[in-house]
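Could you please review the protein record set out just below?
***
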Amino acid sequence: MVRTLEHWLLRLVAGLLLLAGLFLTFKIYIAGQPLVALACLGILAAGTFVYTSGKAYAYRYLFPGVLTVLVFVVFPLAYTFSIGFTNYSSRNLLEYDRARQYFLDETYVVDGESYAFTLHADGPAFRVRLESEHGDIFVTDPLALQNAVPLTVKVKRQEAADAPLSEPADTKTLIANLKALKLLSVTLPSGQIVSASGLREFAPVRKLYLAQPDGSLKNEQDGSLIKPNMATGFFETSTGEALQPGFKVGVGWSNFTRIFTDKAFSEPFVRIFGWTVVFAGLTVLFAFSVGIVLAVLMSWEALRFRKVYSVLLFLPYAVPGFISILVFKGLFSENAGEINLILQGLFGIKPHWFTDPFLAKVMLLIVNTWLGFPYMMLLSMGLIKAIPSDLYEASAIAGAGPLTNFFKITLPLIAKPITPLLISAFAFNFNNFVLIALLTNGRPDFLDTKVPAGTTDLLVSYTYRIAFQDSGQNFGLAAAISTVVFLMVAVLSIINLRLTKVNQVEVR
């Protein structure tokens, strides 16, 4: 009986979840995202089949993991990759239909009497009060302005016997409802139609553009035509002037070719790519070198207080990275930082850590080595413990010293198992955005580039600056660069997997 009750409760919960999923899918569809809604419907269908069919029983435990990978890994990659083939930017944000509707919704004031208006709350709705230049007053019925949809209403003349209106809404409320008010068309008793022409005025208005059969839009004021250019993503006048807002269009491989052919992007890209490789490589080299030396020292049985030293050396890894970076930013301050104060006291020098390109790179490597060596030390300590002690005993009998043991026994035996981890560390530092953003923000900038690019930028921070800090905010180009960076990291991951596979075969 209990098992039957649990069975029906599980079915009830599953049914409720399915209904909630279908409702969410419907809301996504009516929000104007049919492809996303279709994908959600496919996921619901797949989930229903997996958890109700006996044939798919083995996949019930895999489904959540596969779904997570699809939603949080595959979908962002595919979406980013697709943006790289468009002109998506701050100037081309809208879809074509929305950009076209923007022009069709534009209005202009025609000759006629204007009306001062005030907005009055009436419960959750509002009334619009119009007053002509001759003192005639008209009032609408209560309107639900929060819907912000095109609406045509009639007004009636306000009589002395009518219930008084509430206090006029303040400017903040007017601004909040201005979008809905501009979509409101009010028909006066005379038959004239007026709409909001400002924050305090209604006036006779007409649509500025009318759609033509060939897809162009006709300007009703001067009779000119504007036509959509599907190559550039703008409505253009007869003289070729591009009008805002633009719309998204496909541009093929042009963003990818610009990275390597347009000097404005290719020159900083090549320099930043070179520095990215050097930065990632030297970081791994320095962090591993410091880490393995300390690991050897911490593995020395005769060393007193080894555990205390190990805890102290582990602290840089235990402290959140962004805190350490900000602390180092203060320490390297050129005027008040402790590092420069010490250097000036000892040697009479004050290095320009943030303004000299070479010193800025040195500072980044120092900080990143500090952040990375504890991880390398822990890895090395674990691998060193796996080395048979007989090898060191035989080496001692042969009269070998510590350096011989290190280069002939320790390093060769840990080199192969740690190589994939070093490649992973290289891939991580290839995209180490946090360090650059918090410490130098890519600066000092190049002086000979048209796009925002700095001497300490990595490819990931360079992409970020193009996407979010450039005046044009070229998301399409940034997505193309991100795709290129992803492919580079993917190649490193494949190498990593191959090396891991080789190591597994050798162990067997």
About this structure: DSSP finds 17 helices and 14 strands in the chain. The CA atoms of residues 353 and 360 lie 5 Å apart. The radius of gyration is 34 Å.
